[in-house]
Amino acid sequence: MSQSESMQDTQKVVEEVVDTFKQVYMSAEQLREIADQLAGSVQYFHVE
């Protein structure tokens, strides 16, 4: 395997890792939004 091919493979793996982190970040953001909505619902219904 040439150095160029190795660098291309490394770049591909790095891009996959970045995409995975983006997905995790977006999922965490969605969970925060859901948690905020649930907290609002709990306060609305005065559930303790």
Characteristics:
48 residues, 1 helix, 0% strand, rod-shaped
Per-chain topology:
Blueprint: H1 3-45
Characterization of this structure:
The protein contains one helix and no strands. With 48 residues, the chain is an all-alpha fold. It has one domain (1-48). The longest helix has 43 residues, at 3-45. The chain starts with a helix and ends with a helix.
Integer average pLDDT: 92
Strand segment count: 0
Rg result? 21 Å
Helix content: over 70%
Number of discrete helical segments: 1
Q: Which H/E pattern describes the elements?
A: H
Strand-residue proportion: under 5%
Number of domains: 1
Largest sheet at a glance? none
User: From the helix content, strand content and strand pairing, which structural class follows?
Assistant: mainly alpha
Gross morphology is: rod-shaped
Cα end-to-end separation: 63 Å
Low-confidence stretches: none
